[in-house]
Target: LOG family protein
Amino acid sequence: MHVPSRRPLVAVYGSSTVREGDRAYADALALGRALGAAGADVVTGGYGGVMEAASRGAHEAGAHVVGVTVELFERRGPVNPWVRERVHTPDLFERLRHITSRADGFVVAHGSVGTLTELFLTWNLLVADGRPQAPLVAFGAAWPALLRAARQPELVPDELFRYVREAATPEEAARLALGAAAPGS
Model:
């Protein structure tokens, strides 16, 4: 019996505070569209900002959009309207655990401390699970300087940088996230 393969699932992390009209929103919208157009589905935290923009772009490109929400943020506002599958988690750790176990690739877009946490925790989980083939893409102008600062033997050894790629455009981020993102890899 033939079992159809599923589409790659790419996680997009980013700020909840950017708004339509902001450059970061436009970039995340283009990223979602590029991922959807390339045949990927998208998983985000399910709320506003970068998460909304990536969800919207992916939905408009025909992708399935998963939102992994968390009890802590329920008062901040509703799930964005482009989420078609909602997974509700009790805390931030379970949210990130769910996303990292389910996604085939990851894009870290414009964000702040929460997004920084998602970058480093996802990176650590990929290392711990031995998943260098699961692309982790740092997308945007802020990430290269931060990654250069972290590239110190006593902080992050050079060999662990094989887990992270950098992208300057939404299209490059999508391409890199899908470069090795085979479902279940």
